[in-house]
Every structure is written in structure tokens, then in C-alpha cells.
Design a protein that fits this description.
Length: about 400
């Protein structure tokens, strides 16, 4: 199998290096609530800058529809990045065209420039060849250090590699090595926990994941979507009602593969999406039509603790509830701590990842008590399915 080139294979001195990072960090109250993705990207940026390369950073942030100030990388992410790097980072208000070109031209050896959100151009997600070429025109070489976005065949992760010598960054290398070491031959039973808010974009991967794991526990908006597809009235909960067919197809695949799907049996509901909103725990059959499920309930937590006790390997992406708003963090925190305790007792191997998942595990105080924490969520699960991730495959070409 051909493998990719790394920073060991190139002299970056005096070169303009386009570095694709994943600066899609969780934000709470106008600040970055978890800097893990920045911390883990920093060694690649430092190495290139210290060797005299000119670093031009490319990233997406959120899922904007066109240019929206709320998704600018300038306001919240840029200051956090400068703090992590402990060096100044210049900024250009566009990632292609004259604004970007002028900012790149002004860069000196060892300096760093961040370009505005690549998703402000719809051509990014379409992997438009002309847009990929325009990005590539800004640099001499390309380094992909965004493992967590490697499941996307976008212009800044895939298309650009057709135009520039391409290398893997240190985080990309480290993630692939760590995940292979932990999960190449996992001890069974293997349990996957998938929660969170990204539903339709993660449903596809569940269909394959059920063939790889013995049990699949669902929480968050993903669980709501499964419950609704099975006729449970989930009220005003986060749910993609039009995904019922996809859900039934996954349930059929799980059955054929002998994978047990574990859904919540109860939930914590509230009528307002805010911390300390009046709330109650109810069984699935009693979810009020005007309320939202914001966490799994105590019976579901007890179930999951029992399931964990008979599991050898856990892979986890997506919080089980709205962990950012107390007390709706309780389910995620309880399950995370139970998994961490079993890990520390040497009874369980735990691998978790995802921007918000890492923030949730840090909130639970267990980020150092899992076996491995990945910066990636969806990408890590797709890697686990055995898929050749487009962003990684492009580096191997
Ligand atoms: N029941 C729920 N209702 C609404 N949002 C939820 C629910 N459960 C979890 N979430 C939200 O899901 C988000 C994380 O989802 P996602 O982006 O898929 O995870 P990750 O970034 O780890 O891959 C969190 O902001 C959390 O508040
Ligand atoms: O946060 C990310 O993925 P994750 O939610 O699976 O951890 C990546 O930045 C990819 O973002 P996307 O799912 O909008 O392509």
C-alpha cells in the first residue's frame, strides 16, 4: 500500500505552505470552549514556521450558507489560535482572490496567515476544480493536518492535492497511527456510542458501522430520529423526521449483522432550550408534545452503565444530550465517568472523538482517563468502517 509523504520529506524553508487545519472548534458564549483542535494542530504550524516556511492556514468553520459574520474565523477563532501558538497570526478576509493574494505576498519566512472560512465559497463543498486551483495558486506546497475533515472530499481537502505537492501534517500522522494501534484488532464486544446533533450526515456511516460493532448505542438528536421513525412522539425535540426510511434501512442492516441497537428508554425533557430550564424525566411513551428531549434519562443511564460493564472496547462520537446546558449534561457525564473508571481499572479500551465530544469529555473531567481522544468524530467513525477517507487517499496518490 502506498503511503503518504510527511514534513520529513520536504524542505519548507522559504516556501509558502498551505496548511489545511480543522479550526472548527466548539464555541460557547462567544469564546472557544475547547481548544483541543488548536492545541493538536499547533505542532505542525510551529514546525513549519520554525523551519522558515510561510504558513497559510486554510479551514472551514461551521456549516455556513454563504458569507455570514457568525461563521467568520476572525472574531473568535483567530484570537484563540494566537493564544495557543503564542505568536501573531495575520488574517485575510477571503481565502481566494486579490485579498488573499495580497496577504500571502506580504508574508515573510516564519510568519503565519489565516485565511477566512473556506465554506464562505459554496465551491469548497462542491470540490469545484477551478476553486481548488485558485486555492492552490496561493502556495508552493500543501500540508493536510485536518484528519477530522478528511471524510469530506472538498476543494481544500481533496481537490487542491491535484495541483500541489502534498504532505500529511503531524496531527494527521499521529491520529492515523494512534487509531490503528488502538483499534486495528479491537477486543470484543465492541460498542459504538453515537449521539450529537449532526444527523443526516452521520446516518450513512451508521449503516456500515453496524457491521463492525456488536452494539450501537444512540443518544442526542440521532436517538430522537430513530425513536420518531419507530413511532415515538418526540415532541419538539431535535429530530430529522424525513430520515425514517434511512433509519429502517440501518435497523435492517443491524439485524442482518447481529448488531444490537440500544436506544434510550427515557429522557429528560424541557420546554426551553436553556440552562436550568424546568425539566422532568419521562419514559418515551410520555414525552409531552410541546417539549424537547435534551438528555437521556436515568433509566437509560443505568442501562448504559450495565452495557459498559459487559463491553471490552468503546468508540464514541456525539454527546448524549445538550451537555453545554446544565442539568442536561448529566447523562453524558455519567456515562463518560463510568467508561473512564472501567478504562482506568484496565477493563475497557475507550476511544472517543469529535469537536463537541472532546469538549463534553473535558466537561466531565475524563479527557485524560480515556485510552485515546481523537480530534475527529465523523472522520474517525468512517475510518473505523474501513473507508479510505478522501482527504487521506488524496495524500497517497
Ligand atoms: N437531545 C439533543 N437535542 C439537541 N442538541 C443535542 C442533543 N443531544 C446532543 N446535542 C448537541 O449535539 C452537539 C454535538 O453534536 P456533534 O456536532 O454531532 O458532535 P461532535 O462535534 O462531537 O461530532 C452538542 O452541541 C449538543 O448540545
Ligand atoms: O467537526 C467536525 O466533525 P465532527 O462533528 O464529526 O467532529 C469537522 O470539522 C467536520 O465538519 P463537517 O461535519 O461540518 O464537515
Amino acid at each position: 500500500m502506498s503511503t503518504f509523504k510527511t514534513l520529513d520529506d520536504v524542505d519548507v524553508r522559504g516556501k509558502t505552505v498551505l496548511v489545511r487545519g480543522d479550526l472548527n472548534v466548539p464555541v460557547e458564549d462567544g469564546t472557544v470552549s475547547d481548544t483541543t483542535r488548536l492545541d493538536r494542530l499547533a505542532p505542525t504550524i510551529d514546525e513549519i514556521a520554525d523551519k522558515g516556511g510561510r504558513v497559510v492556514l486554510l479551514s472551514h468553520f461551521g456549516r455556513p450558507k454563504g458569507v455570514t459574520p457568525e461563521f467568520s474565523l476572525k472574531t473568535i477563532v483567530l484570537p484563540a489560535l494566537e493564544e495557543v501558538l503564542e505568536r501573531p497570526v495575520a488574517f485575510a478576509a477571503d481565502c481566494v482572490g486579490p485579498v488573499a493574494e495580497a496577504a500571502v505576498k506580504a508574508l515573510k519566512d516564519g510568519q503565519i496567515l489565516l485565511l477566512e472560512n473556506v465554506r464562505f465559497h459554496p465551491e469548497e463543498e462542491k470540490n469545484d476544480p477551478a476553486f481548488a486551483k485558485a486555492l492552490a495558486a496561493l502556495g508552493d506546497i500543501y500540508v493536510n493536518d485536518a484528519f477530522s475533515a478528511a471524510h469530506r472530499a472538498h476543494a481544500s481537502t481533496e481537490g487542491i492535492t491535484h495541483h500541489l505537492p502534498s504532505y500529511a501534517g503531524r496531527l494527521m500522522q499521529a491520529e492515523l497511527e494512534a487509531l490503528s494501534a488502538a483499534l486495528e484488532a479491537p477486543e470484543r464486544p465492541v460498542l459504538a456510542i453515537v449521539g450529537g446533533a449532526k444527523i443526516s450526515t452521520k446516518l450513512d456511516l451508521l449503516g456500515n458501522l453496524v457491521a463492525k460493532v456488536d452494539r450501537l448505542v444512540l443518544g442526542g438528536g440521532m436517538a430522537n430520529t430513530f425513536l420518531a421513525a419507530q413511532g415515538v412522539n418526540v415532541g419538539k425535540s431535535l429530530c430529522e423526521h424525513d430520515m425514517a426510511d434511512a433509519v429502517h434501512s440501518i435497523l435492517a442492516k443491524a439485524k442482518a449483522a447481529g448488531c444490537e441497537i440500544v436506544l434510550p428508554v427515557d429522557g429528560v425533557v424541557a420546554r426551553e432550550f436553556k440552562a436550568d430550564a424546568p425539566h422532568e424525566a419521562v419514559d418515551n411513551a410520555a414525552i409531552p408534545a410541546d417539549a424537547m428531549l435534551l438528555d437521556i434519562g436515568p433509566k437509560s443511564v443505568a442501562n448504559l452503565k450495565a452495557v459498559l460493564a459487559e463491553t471490552k472496547t468503546v468508540v464514541w462520537n456525539g454527546p448524549l444530550g445538550v451537555f453545554e446546558k446544565r442539568p442536561f449534561d448529566a447523562g453524558t457525564v455519567a456515562v463518560a465517568r463510568a467508561a473512564a473508571d472501567l478504562t482506568q481499572a484496565g477493563k475497557l479500551l475507550t476511544v472517543a472523538g469529535g469537536g463537541d465530544t472532546v469538549a463534553a469529555l473535558a466537561h466531565a473531567g475524563v479527557e485524560d482517563r480515556f485510552s485515546y481522544i481523537s480530534t475527529a468524530g465523523g472522520a474517525f467513525l468512517e475510518w473505523l468502517e474501513g473507508k479510505d477517507l478522501p482527504g487521506v487517499a488524496a495524500l497517497k496518490r
